[in-house]
Amino acid sequence: MSKIILFDGVCNFCSSSVKFIIKRDKLAKFKFGSLQSKIGQELKNNTNLPENTDSIILIEDGKSYDKSTAALRISKELDGLWKLFYMLIIIPKPLRDIAYNYLAKNRYKWFGKKNECMLPSPEIRSRFLQDGQQ
């Protein structure tokens, strides 16, 4: 089963992060959906996360993870030395999330915001969830 990453589709930093992940996920372990899409909302609503969650969300093996935990679990699956970042999981989540929350709070100010979600290129379109698909 694929691992699903839900991300803020209008955030420039988030869209760049998705491109970064795709480039380092040669085995295509991850599928992607924007939080703004219908399927993104459905998947998010089926998680055990608070309703107002607007961070990156990783869904794998029926469990959902957000914020720094999602980012670190994603890094564990990437090609190259990015796997080493997973060692930071030993830091308690509240401490890890301080840095995550600071970046998330300022992401639009620092990196900008789009009016629409990113459109994937034809080469990677199959990795993005379409409404009505799960």
Automatic annotation (TrEMBL):
Pfam families: DCC1-like. GO terms for molecular function: protein-disulfide reductase activity. It comes from the Bacteria. InterPro entries: DCC1-like (IPR007263), DCC_oxidoreductase (IPR052927). This is Thiol-disulfide oxidoreductase. It comes from Oceanobacillus chungangensis.
